[in-house]
Amino acid sequence: MAACAAMVNNKMIMRNSNKNAAVLLLIFLFLSSSTSTCKAHLSSHFYDHTCPNALSTIRSAIRTAVSRERRMAASLVRLHFHDCFVQGCDASILLKDSPSITSERNAFQNNASVRGFEVIDSAKAEVEKTCPGVVSCADILALAARDASVAVGGPSWSVKLGRRDSTTASLTLAEAQLPRATDDLQKLISNFAGKGLTAEDMVALSGAHTLGQARCLTFKDRIYNGTGSDIDAGFASTRQRRCPATGGDENLAALDLVTPNSFDNNYFKNLIQKKGLLASDQILFSGGSTDNVVSKYSRSPATFKSDFASAMIKMSEIDLLTGSAGQIRKICSAIN
Ligand code: HEM
Ligand SMILES: *[C@@H]1O[C@H](CO)[C@@H](O)[C@H](O)[C@H]1NC(C)=O
Ligand SMILES: *[C@@H]1O[C@H](CO)[C@@H](O)[C@H](O)[C@H]1NC(C)=O
C-alpha cells in the first residue's frame, strides 16, 4: 500500500516539476522500489512458469474436501476472510502458537469456530511435491476460497497471485479487527471501510452466510431477547429448540435456514422475513442505510453473485506482502 501511495505522489510531483520535487521524486522512486506491498505486483499468471500445475492441484484438493464434507466450502471462504482482515491476506491466521508466534487461531472470533486448516495444509503439501518453496500459503487461501465457492454453485472469479506469507501473526489485531455478531451497523460499516471495502461490499460479502453454520452462543441472545419487529417469532422458537437458554453453546444451526449448502440469495430473502440468524445479519435489513442493498440482492441472484465475486477480489487484495517481503512458507502452520 505504501508503495502504491508513493507512486501516486510521484505523478503529482512531476506536474509541479521544480528542483526540490525532483529530489523528492528520486527518494520516492527509491522507496517504492524497496517497499513491496503494492497490488500492481499481482498477476493471474504468476505461477505459469514456476509451478504450472499449482492451480489445478489446489482445485482438486478443494473439490475433494468439499465432496467429503459440504460445509468445508463455507469454512474455507471464512478462513480467507479472517486471514485478510488481520494484517492483510498474508496467511497469518494459519500460524500456530510457537515461541515467536501468538496464534490468531485463539482469538475470540476464531477459536472453536474457524476451520479448514488441514485442507489448506494438504493442498500445500501436494503443491510442495512438484514445486517446493514456490507457492505461498496466502495465495492458496485465496484460491481455495474461490474454488470452494465454485464447488457449491457460487460464482467464480479470477484470482491474481503473488501474495507472500507473513512471519508474524497478531492475536491482538485479530480480536480488535474481526467483526463480531454484536457489532452495530455503524461499527460494521466503519470496520469494512478501514479495509477499503464499501457498505455495499460488506452486504455482498455477508452473503457468504448463505453457507455454513454458527454456534448457539453466537445467536442465543437474539433468539431469546429479540423483539417481534426484529425477529420472526416462529423462526425464533424453531432455533430455540436446539439452542437452550442455558447450555448447548456449541450446538450448530445453519446461517441460511432455507438452503444451507448451496450458494444462492436465500440469505437475503431470509433477512427481509426477519429470519437472519445472527444479529449482525439482521442488522443489514433493519431500517438502516443497507436495506436497499439487501432488497436488491433478494430480487436478483445474478447481481448478488457478480457483486460477491467483485468484493471477494477486493477483499483478497487487502494489504499484501509481495516482491521480496515476507517469505514462502514450507508448511503453512509455521514460519520457515
Ligand atoms: C459482517 C460481519 C460478519 C460477522 C459479524 C460475522 C460473524 C460470523 C459468526 C459469528 C459466525 C459463526 C461463528 C461461530 O460459530 O462461532 C460466522 C460464520 C461464517 N461466516 Fe461470517 N461474519 C461476518 C462476515 C463474513 C464475511 C465477510 C464472510 C466471507 C466473505 C463470512 C463468512 C462466513 C461463513 C462462510 C461462515 C460459516 C463458516 C462455517 O460453517 O464453517 N462472514 N460469521
Ligand atoms: C475461546 O476464547 C474465549 C474468550 O477468549 C475463552 O473463554 C474460551 O475458553 C476459548 N475457547 C476455546 C475452546 O479455546
Ligand atoms: C437476554 O438479555 C438479558 C439482559 O441483557 C441477559 O441477561 C440474558 O443473558 C439474555 N438471554 C440470553 C439467552 O442470551
From TrEMBL:
Its cofactor is heme b; Ca(2+). Binds 1 heme b (iron(II)-protoporphyrin IX) group per subunit. Ca(2+) 1 binds at D83, V86, G88, D90, S92, E104. Residues 41-336 form the Plant heme peroxidase family profile domain. It catalyses: 2 a phenolic donor + H2O2 = 2 a phenolic radical donor + 2 H2O. It comes from the Eukaryota. Its EC number is 1.11.1.7. Heme b binds at H209. Keywords: Calcium, Disulfide bond, Glycoprotein, Heme, Hydrogen peroxide, Iron, Metal-binding, Oxidoreductase, Peroxidase, Secreted, Signal. It holds the Pfam family peroxidase. Residues 1-40 form the signal peptide. The record marks R78 as: Transition state stabilizer. GO terms for molecular function: heme binding; lactoperoxidase activity; metal ion binding. It is an enzyme of class 1 (oxidoreductase). It is found in: Secreted. The keyword RNA-binding does not apply. One of its GO terms (biological process) is response to oxidative stress. Substrate binds at P179. GO terms for cellular component: extracellular region. Disulfide bonds join C51-C131, C84-C89, C137-C332, C216-C243. The active site is at H82. InterPro entries: Haem_peroxidase, Haem_peroxidase_sf, Peroxidase_pln, Peroxidases_AS, Peroxidases_heam-ligand_BS, Secretory_peroxidase. Ca(2+) 2 binds at T210, D256, T259, D264. Removal of H(2)O(2), oxidation of toxic reductants, biosynthesis and degradation of lignin, suberization, auxin catabolism, response to environmental stresses such as wounding, pathogen attack and oxidative stress. These functions might be dependent on each isozyme/isoform in each plant tissue. Belongs to the peroxidase family. Classical plant (class III) peroxidase subfamily. This is Peroxidase.
